[in-house]
Amino acid sequence: MSNTRDLNETPLHKNNNIVNEICTKGICMEMCPSEEVILRVKEKMVHVLELTRSGHKLVKCYCRSAANSNMAVPQLLRPFRVLSDTVHYLLLEISNRSNIKMSVMYDFLDDRLRAVRQDMTIQRLPPEECVVLLEPMIRFYIYYGYRLCDHPISEFDPVLNKKYLLECMKWFLNCCDVLQNTDKVEDDVDTILTHFNSLDISKTRPELSCDRILVESLYILCNLDSIHPLYRVSALKLAYNIAIANIKCNFIKIFKLSRKLCPLTFSALCLHHPMIQRRALQAMSFAYNSQYLTVPVEVLKQWLAFNSYEEARSTCMHYGLKVVKEKHGVCFNKHTFKVDVEQHQLTKYYQAKVLQLKLEDVLSYTV
To answer: Where do the SAC3/GANP/THP3 conserved domain residues begin and end (predicted)?
Structure first.
């Protein structure tokens, strides 16, 4: 495998390459250190999702590091087993609460998962442990990135979500590369997953999985205009072909191939729909340039994965294309296409299977 992925070397990734340096080992065996529990209960800073019938069950918050603070305190850091229990609890139990607004749920889970990554970073957990913790986080960010894509910026920030998603992806894939270079990837991850799934916490709930091929596919589809992810794994044929079709501006092929994607990879691609549709309509304005001939709106809807006739019609009009009502068709004209207008807003594609799935469902399947 060619290691040409465009990774920015951050402390998150460098940590996995440090082998001779003494690392701080966490000894906190609870999901939230007692010191934080006492403080937050006293200050009435317990989140609604941490309230239980018997009182409360707190999970460690993300904490920004201050200039003179020492965060490498063993009593405040959770070891791998506790972190794995925490990830299970957050993504397989808390996420099932149906009485909480989705954006509130996302904010809580995002904060607590960032705290998990913070503990991982400070302790410099080995790559075989990191991949097991990071993979479900990647699914989490993809899932909510699509489910909340039409929410106002005050409730959901897609830019920040993608930042955390790519951070987790790059860290995960960097760990995989390190493991592969030492020929440990299969044995080490399988061993940890076996232990991971033998814990009591897993016996009463669905199991999380660790699927590298899925993450590699997501990495391609989340970086659709970049060629670097295409050189990584030969098994990623479908995602690879979609990316190549995009580079070659074969937009109809993109949507045709997308029907074969799994729910998560399809969701990752759907976030690019407005960009792909705009570029397709602009290309068609040159290819089908005519003052008299039209392309049926219904055909356009099928080609470019619009939800409805009306959505296809309004999008064409947004870019200055004339819709001939009598013919139910679009008259493409390269001179009238508006290249300077803002890209039309993303709307959820009703055929996206992820819209019918719970977070629990997307955390456990493999491709």
So the answer is: 31-324
